[in-house]
């Protein structure tokens, strides 16, 4: 299945809908089990370092009502997790291709503005 296919899964007997880019249609449908399912369908395995960023993103979205683009993601990560983790290189290692977009998708957020 391509990451861009519309799909739905069942989690706790409730359908979880995805948009055409593979992002959850509803923020509240997210759970760790859903994140793992999304990661598996992309061939990813989530480590503790991934989870740290996913929870950071969910907190960011709750506070600012937006998914951060790369620059804002790096800044938020640096502020909350320190210099070592708050770099684009670190985030690229965790989420190759497009860290802001991939991490937002796995965190159950909409596509960040200004992400290709």
TrEMBL record:
Keywords, alphabetical: Cytoplasm, Transferase
Signal peptide positions (record): none
Subcellular location: Cytoplasm
EC class name: transferase
Pfam families assigned to the protein according to its UniProt record, in alphabetical order: DsrC
EC annotation from Swiss-Prot or TrEMBL: 2.8.1.-
Main localization of the protein described in the UniProt heading: cytoplasm
Presence of keyword Transcription: no
Function: Part of a sulfur-relay system.
PANTHER family: SULFURTRANSFERASE TUSE (PTHR37010:SF1)
Family that this chain belongs to: Belongs to the dsrC/tusE family.
Protein name in the entry: Sulfurtransferase
